[in-house]
Write a structure and sequence with these properties.
The chain is α+β, with helices and mostly antiparallel strands. The protein contains 3 helices and 2 strands; from the N terminus they run E-E-H-H-H. The chain has a two-stranded antiparallel ribbon. The longest helix is centred in the last third of the chain and has 15 residues. 1% of the residues are buried.
């Protein structure tokens, strides 16, 4: 529930739920019919999940995005002359 199409939505941190005027929410539901029922429904783990799955928010000198980290690892591999690991797929029967 982010972006320009979600203007008019809010978050009630006390009740831990999404808020919106009925008109705004009903209009949004037209393009998200599977979301019916989430308005005013508590999401007690929202803050924890946002920390786990949210974007990096660090901005200091030592900030490194996941893409930056991958580039650095690849650069280090090239310097050491190591080969990238092959893709390995394991199938578990059962």
């Amino acid at each position: 529930m982010r972006g320009d199409s979600c203007s008019g939505f809010g978050w009630d941190s006390e009740r831990q739920c999404i808020t919106a005027d009925d008109i705004v929410f009903d209009e949004w539901l037209k393009s998200h019919p599977n979301a019916n029922g989430i308005k005013n429904k508590p999401f007690p783990y929202f803050d924890l999940l946002a920390r786990i799955f949210g974007k990096d928010r660090a901005t200091g000198d030592a900030f490194e995005s996941p893409a930056d980290a991958v580039e650095e690892l690849e650069r280090e591999d090239q310097i050491r002359g190591s080969q990238p690991m092959p893709n390995i797929f394991i199938h578990f029967a059962g």
